[in-house]
Amino acid sequence: MTTAAELQTVVTVPARFRGPEGSANGGWIAGTVTEALHGARHDSAVEVTLHAPTPLEAELSLRQLANTATLTHGDTLLVEAISVAEQLTAPAFVPFNEAARAEGGFAGLADHAFPGCFSCGLRSPGDGLRIFPGSVSGTDLVAAGWRVPMTVTDEDGVVPDAVVWAALDCATGWAHFKPGEFALLGRLTAKVERRVYPGGTYSVVARATGREGRKLFGESAVYEVDGTLVAAAKAVWITPA
């Protein structure tokens, strides 16, 4: 039963926003649930835990109550988001031209486990984001030059935060992966500081920050061409058993 203080909506994830085949891109769905929690406000970071893969083209229940938002499919909890008082550490800025050159070393060009991924997949320009993080010479960073498609705006011509979360997502995995390797996003904590504009150019930067058993840790950031921080995130990935 929905209480007076609870907001509930039914949502579906279009197939365009897939990560692994058959399920939503982790960053995009995390950002979508965050938008339900925060709206257009960017006053705190949000920690999003992915409990199960989010199915595509299915009716899902999105509930928002106080400082928590959840996404469920029937009785299955898929995603949970909470506001957190946390200062995120962003990896160092990499200029756009240098980030774009690093794309040549993107491990997914040789062997990509999820080539249809909205964020890092080998999709047609304008369909996916085509963020291909490769190693930046002389550093522990991976980076990519992000050319924001005009086709990722909402009905008001604004790039939704869900798209920015998608940009922050996969780079943290590719900071670890070799060709053909993969893991699934388990948790993403992020804060968007500024708007992203369609047709703009940005640097996406990430680095690996550790490993513990099947868990991989990383952090990422999106920067404007002058080095202004747009958004930052930290992630936990779970490798296959």
Automatic annotation (TrEMBL):
<protein>
    <recommendedName>
        <fullName>Thioesterase family protein</fullName>
    </recommendedName>
</protein>
<dbReference type="InterPro" id="IPR029069">
    <property type="entry name" value="HotDog_dom_sf"/>
</dbReference>
